[in-house]
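WARN  no MSA supplied for this record, continuing single-sequence
INFO  ligand: glycine
INFO  echoing inputs
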Amino acid sequence: MSSIVIESGVLARIGAHVPRAHAYAVITDSNVAGLYGRRVAGSLGNAELFEFAAGEANKSRETWMTLTDALLERGYGRDCCIVAVGGGVTCDLAGFVAATYLRGVPIVQVPTSLLAMIDAALGGKTGVDVAAGKNLVGAFHQPHCVVIDAGVLATLPAAELSNGLAEAIKHGAIADEEYLAWITDHADGVFERRTDMLEHLVQRSIAIKTQFVRDDEREAAQRAALNFGHTIGHALERLSGYAIQHGHAVALGMMMEAEIGTALGVTAAGTVQHIHRAVRAARLPHRIVFDDTGPTIAATRSDKKARGGAVRYVLLEKPGRVARSERGEWTWQVADDVVREALKQFSV
Ligand code: GLY
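INFO  complex generated
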């Protein structure tokens, strides 16, 4: 895996961590350009800023095309390096540009949101959303390194902290019950932006994510566990036209998928309640309005884990542990009726 640098104030010293390159293309969105994009570009020699309009709706083939055409027009060659500065959308999109530009150029990920620091920037998954679903066109492309200045979280809006906390809750749910409880107990400190708590959050989540990706970069086995809450989460996000934010959708997805496991007798009683407490503490939604669960079930069918046309779910054994099937698999096939009942449990 790539090296990960976590250092306060590192954005001003980024030159020490990027590979040698003829030119640097700093890709950022319209929210982050003025905050950090220009600062990062300014601290690198021979760097230009490439900005796109912020928002999940722009994590698209169209934006990928605009960015790659701009790089071609400016004459960037294989000796360039892309530097992604921003949140999850920027990490995924710039990563896909780097994976495909001239058949692949190096990228340094500089995540500036909690969600990007503990999830999107790590592990080399890149891609764009398409009409059929989220992240369905993409590539694996490991970054040269990931550079994290946790100090930037001091000014991150509370809603963005909630979004990141959803992924941290997922890390606790799949790998560390104590961490899940720590998040529940310390979420207020995170919202107060206590440096010690933000640092613990970033470090523990990165350690868990790395543990799942290290020996399975291409998701043939245990990396799939990182999709807990995401089969339903991605479906909710897409059906809302991305009006539901990723962390909100994942929070709901985790509770629903824990409920599915409970209904099947795979997940220990009380697990849903543990996740529910963490979700409430993280100021994430725990209910959703469904007129009809049918479209959500239909939307899960485009999930990337589907095999032989059947949707697969990550199920927990208990808080902190993923359930493996009798055949040792990390994902489970679940009947629509069971999914439908779980969706209804959390609907108003
Ligand atoms: N976000 C899930 C993964 O990186 O595998």
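Residues 95 and 126 are 5 Å apart (CA to CA).
INFO  checksum written, moving to next record
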